Amino acid sequence: MARVDGERRGWLRGAPPPPWVRALPILLIAGVSAATLADPDPLDIGFLLGAIPPLAVLSYGPVATAVLGAAVVVILNVPAFRLDDPGQTDLLTICFVAALSVFVAFVRRRRDMQLDMERTVAEAAQRAVVPSVPERVGPVRCAGLYRAAERGTLVGGDFFDVRESAHGVRAVLGDVQGHGLAAIATVASLMGAFREAVLDRPSLEEVAARLDRRLAVDSARVAHAELFATAVLLEFTPAADAVRIVVCGHPPPVLLRDGTATEVAVVPWTPLGLGLPGAAPPGGRALALRPGDRLFLASDGVWESRDTAGAFYPLTDRLPALTDGTGPAATADRVWADLLRHSPAVRDDVTMLVLAPGDPAGR
After folding, report:
1. What pLDDT sits at residue 325?
2. Could you give the CA distance from residue 74 to residue 167 in angstroms, rounded to a whole number?
3. What share of the chain is helix, strand, coil (3-state, %, to 5)?
4. How many helices (H) and strands (E) does the chain have?
């Protein structure tokens, strides 16, 4: 199935704090208390406790922050700890910091609740644009993987889908101009056009033409929009013993057969939405399939990833070993892990689609 990932956030970018951050205020209280009890001489370290309420704000709500602030005041006044007999001014300062921390924790908690709600709505909308691909669509086993380049988002400028129709299973994978939130509207428009065209267009070439028209119309509504997208479309026969492929300015699929990986030779059409005058209509290629064949589709984020020396990721060289003895889902995961080893700083949307026609359910 498809995995759409947008959770690559550190705790400083909105993710929940790690356990050590939550434990820090309690550990600081325990450490100061233990140090003062263990040393026979009074220690002037009570000022460290003043950091506990602000630290609590990072992880806790207003109630827990208030409890920790009260604990600090109590510890400072317990004679057994001998924290240098804090004066009235010191206690008032810490009380003020604790009260201010409680207020900040209250504001942060309300803001986090609002952000969580907005993120939930955004996730639902984004998953509607690029939904999960079922493990099997008709006679074809499927697996997709999506990693959006823009932090905090689930989708960006790439799109893919697999649908069953009266003419066989049809699939698309593409990449619109740009990435991130600015590209989502274009992705949504293309995905809607694809889902409609799959149902009523008798040929794959006509499906591609429908996507091209959709993008050209959208671009004409905005002055100097210059919207375009690359895409590869596939149509499997009802028996999944052959596939028709149309390429619109996108890298072609890779055929995995008998331990080898080969790019399928397809005459490419222009990218969608360019509307070049005199351009010929899209043309495709029919490819006979054998038992055990698989098709691997990837976006530019895979093909154009570079290592620190500037070398491109050698996808076709790595695929045979990465797909040996694995199912479609494991293949996508292995390629992603290998891609990160080759290019740790991937800055483009990464999309993969693995299609195994007629693959037994247990593989």
Report:
1. 79
2. 76
3. 45, 20, 35
4. 9, 12
β-pair partners for 171:
162, 234
120-164, pLDDT tens digit by residue? Answer: 776 676 677 777 788 999 999 999 888 876 655 566 678 899 999
Predicted pLDDT at 103: 93
Which pair of structure tokens corresponds to residue 102? 């409680």
Which pLDDT does position 18 carry in this prediction? 83
CB 131 within 8 A of CB 139: no
Nearest to 210 by CA among 252, 170, 261: 170
Which helix (DSSP H) or strand (DSSP E) does residue 65 occupy? helix 62-77
Question: Cα–Cα distance between 74 and 66 in angstroms, integer?
Answer: 12
Rounded to two decimals, the pTM is 0.71
In the chain, the amino acid numbered 98 is A
- Residue 34 CB burial class (10 angstroms; 0-12, 13-18, ≥19): exposed
Cα 265 vs. chain centroid, distance in angstroms? 30
**DSSP assignment, residue 276?**
-
pLDDT of residue 141: 93
State residue 7's pLDDT score.
Answer: 46
CA distance 332 to 350: 11
Q: Which positions of the chain have pLDDT values less than 50? A: 4-7, 361-363
pLDDT score recorded for residue 188 = 85
Residue 233 contacts residue 290 (beta carbons within 8 Å): no
Closest CA to 266 of 281, 280, 287: 287
Q: Looking at residue 272, what DSSP letter applies? A: B
CA distance 172 to 233: 4
- Nearest Cα neighbor of 272 from 155, 147, 125, 157 is 157
328's CB contacts (< 8 A; 6+ apart) are: 141, 142, 143, 294, 354, 355, 356, 359
